[in-house]
């Protein structure tokens, strides 16, 4: 029965996406629909703004449809101009419904903990925007989610601010108590004092408005608190939908394609750029140039992939640490130990213990 239901959901998702995905960087149409709803809350009808931005209104109701990123940025520009509110992204994220985020939103509300929510956002943020680059870092105090927008950004970091506000709302909605982040940062150094106070009040902490990128940090006890709404079966189905949809979104991304090749090559040692380029039928120089266009170098991409896989294997498997180090392409476990200290601030064994220990 479960397998049949999964197949039905996958089929419905495929059939519903009636229009071809746009070539190049793109934004989920449902995300734009949420922006439009926020616009109405300011008393501004979004239809003229959509038209001026070159966005096709008929796509707003098509599941899985996407808009070119440049057009969505023009929509943000117009909306900020009309509302004269530099924090409109914060209000958008505060009002956003989980269904807005395609299958990712449903995976979020069936997660077992805030830690899993953050992990899902980091893995599948490109469902929302192919220009959104999310990473996680962990230490003994908690987990930090960092968000960068590749290839330029929308005015006022609106999308990044919306995502931070959405995450905070979900953390409080799913928890048994009020959750306040320990730190928040955005890159809005020229905000007026009244808007800085609005930021601080919303997030419950003094917000760093001169941060290099948007980030939000949660204390360790808050990240591991179990959620009563957790549903492993539904989360598995919705995550499968997320993977299947994201694969189509990422087809044009050389970084994503390079990551897939790297993952397969890691068991044979650290992948070389020529090996990856050969698998993609490119020269090493061409691959490096195309990765740079997507805002990442080969070395950064490999390091990011290893860090993510290391977190997964240490936190969610019983595999020996030596075996994990070799599977991640390290020729010597001591090199893996040094990498973990750089990524997580501690050795692999200590990090595994930290991820599994609930403080009393």
Blueprint of the fold:
Layout: H1 2-16, E1 26-28, H2 29-41, H3 47-53, E2 66-68, H4 69-83, H5 88-95, H6 102-109, H7 114-124, E3 132-139, E4 142-149, H8 158-174, E5 183-187, H9 193-203, E6 210-219, H10 220-224, H11 232-249, H12 254-265, H13 273-279, H14 284-293, H15 298-316, H16 321-327, H17 333-344, H18 348-356
Antiparallel strand pairs: 1-2, 3-4, 4-6, 5-6
Coarse morphology: globular
The biggest sheet amounts to: 4 strands, antiparallel
For the biggest β-sheet, the strand order reads: 3-4-6-5
How far apart are the first and last residues' alpha carbons, in Å?
A: 40 Å
The helix fraction, in percent, is 55-70%
Report the radius of gyration as a whole number of Å.
21 Å
- What is the total tally of β strands? 6
Going by helix content, strand content and strand pairing, the class is alpha+beta
Q: Give the helix tally.
A: 18
| Average pLDDT rating | 86
SSE arrangement, N to C:
HEHHEHHHHEEHEHEHHHHHHHHH
Query: Low-confidence runs (pLDDT<50, min 5 residues)?
Result: 5-21
Strand content: 5-15%
